[in-house]
Amino acid sequence: MKDKFAIAAALQEIGIRLELKGGQYFKARAYKLGARSLAEVTEDLGKLIKENRLTFVKGIGYALAKQIEELYTTGESSLLNQLRAEMPPGIVELSNVRGLNPKKVERLHEALGISTVEELKAAAEAGKLREIKGFTAKTESRILEAIAGSRNRENRIHIHHALRAGERIIEYLKTSRTLIQAELAGDLRRWQETVSQIVVVASAQNPKSVIDHFLSFPMVVRTEDKSRDRAAVTLSEGFRATLIAVKPEEFPVTLLNATGSDAHLEKVGQVAEKKNLKLTPKGIEKHNGVRAKSSVVSEARPLGRATSPLLTRGLLTRVKDESEIYRKLGMQYVPPELREDQGEIEAAQGGNLPHDLITGEDVRGMVHCHTTYSDGKHSIEQMVAAAEAMGMKYITITDHSPTAFYAGGVKIDRLQRQWEEIDEVQDKTKVRILKGTESDIVADGSLDYPDWILEQFDVIVASIHSRYKMDEDKMTRRIVTAMRQPVFKIWGHALGRLIQKRPPFDCRVEEILDVIAESRAAVEINGDPYRLDMEPRWLREARKRRIKFVISVDAHSTGALNNVKFGVGIARRAWIRRGEVLNTLGVKAFQKAVRPVSQ
């Protein structure tokens, strides 16, 4: 078994089976994390094994390395074989049905030979489950409801998990000799905070061969739907993924349609109709009043997405890329992040879309970085080295202030030692290190640390980390007070949300933005994928007030410096331009812009 994806799938299965077995949570988790790490390895796996360097890969310890080596050399895992022998067939799939535990799955297999969800469904519909000890007619009904619910339920995936899985899918598809092109689509391409599924569009002269190749992806645990040009599957992590495969000449319009949003596509269709044009598989033709039949792409539409008028009027093909589609419709190219029907169509028709939307290449400095001085995992030197490796010109070290005691907030006596260490590291690197803090905004709106300390920092990120349940009036007053402080500060993870875990706290956002517009402050666009705060709608309100932004990483480790791409994605959704982001400036200009005290 030489394929790293197949080996990763085996590790994932071991983790799932250990979890189902019970009592081995940490071991199970280690195998799942190891599977993810192995799937992301870019170096030749055989070379890593030969040189005994597997344990150098993050998340792979000695035990996992032995399993990987065994799978690589023999094609089998003795541990996995043992776990499979101990458990009934189909336990991994059946255990996903609400209400079924390993013991019940074992009874189902012993009594009726059930090993798949389809067999379970058929048996329940036939009334056969009630014949098994511990199962009743009511149990049958609940199982059928659970099966139906699991198929209809939309589980949202955090963007960073979806992006990682999507990139692995594309990496695997590229091992197909027939593949010509493959791109991520859907909500993920529009950089939504969460997505319902991973959508990939691919092209090949023989699209079916790419579909068949995709279904052999080792991380696929179940095929939900399959046609000549589409396959919908469930991956080992529980994520849903859909692949749409078309001929090369159909790729641009297919990618456009698979990216959405539906509201944007509907308006694009209206633009075509007003121009008396028909979008057909052969290209743009004069509209003769006869509606074209729905195309192959409409049949291959990602699950849960409506067919748009653009599709029901046929396809625009024989174009090089999406930009040519927009051009033929008399519009500027609309970047994926803007396709939400929030004025982008009208702006594109008038040639008014920003030509300088922020990009990752524009960001020149890492802002909002934590180290071992508070709750970070890596030292100042390690964080700086990682920023330098990414081509950054500067980095701000902004460990927590004393009030954040739960996060190891830096007291004044330790702050002096941190500054000394920064000076020591500065002598070894070309990256400019700026001394900063993530200062708590305490209950009365004051900033943590006395003024004489705040004034000595290079940069201040001011954030709320406690008392999130204040009422709207008190919270608004608290933040307004902080933003009116005479020192320059960056409003950090502004509304305190944790996606899918904690909603934004109550406050009058526009009132606060009005104050910021007249104060010495900027707004952070937090790139932590669990935060992504503020939301694009509020960032657009900030833009109206000509407020400046900082795209931050809120990094607690060297790896988290990569959060910058998520911050950029949110910023682009808000139409933010390069000149509106302070950390696109060179180090001297940035330092001058964010310096707490005017000089």
What does this structure look like?
With 599 residues, this protein is of the alpha/beta class. It folds into 5 domains: 4-86, DNA polymerase, domain 1, CATH 1.10.150; 91-152, 5' to 3' exonuclease, C-terminal subdomain (DNA polymerase, domain 1), CATH 1.10.150.20; 157-246, Beta Polymerase, domain 2, CATH 3.30.460.10; 262-349, DNA polymerase, thumb domain (Beta Polymerase, domain 3), CATH 3.30.210; 360-594, TIM Barrel, CATH 3.20.20. Helix content is 42%, strand content 14%. It has 26 helices and 16 strands. It has a 7-stranded parallel beta sheet. Strands 2-4-7-6-5 form a 5-stranded mixed beta sheet, with helices on both faces. A two-stranded antiparallel ribbon has the order 1-3. A hairpin with a 3-residue loop joins strand 5 and strand 6 (230-235). The protein is globular. It starts with a helix and ends in a 5-residue tail after the last helix.
Topology, pairings included?
Blueprint: H1 4-21, H2 25-39, H3 45-50, H4 62-74, H5 78-86, H6 91-94, H7 102-112, H8 117-125, H9 137-152, E1 157-158, H10 159-173, E2 179-185, H11 186-189, E3 194-195, E4 198-204, H12 207-215, E5 220-226, E6 230-235, E7 240-246, H13 251-259, H14 262-274, E8 277-280, E9 283-286, H15 296-299, H16 309-312, H17 322-328, H18 344-349, E10 365-369, H19 380-389, E11 394-400, H20 412-426, E12 432-440, H21 451-454, E13 459-463, H22 472-483, E14 489-491, H23 509-517, E15 521-526, H24 536-544, E16 549-552, H25 564-573, H26 587-594
Parallel strand pairs: 4-7, 10-11, 11-12, 12-13, 13-14, 14-15, 15-16
Antiparallel strand pairs: 1-3, 2-4, 5-6, 6-7, 8-9
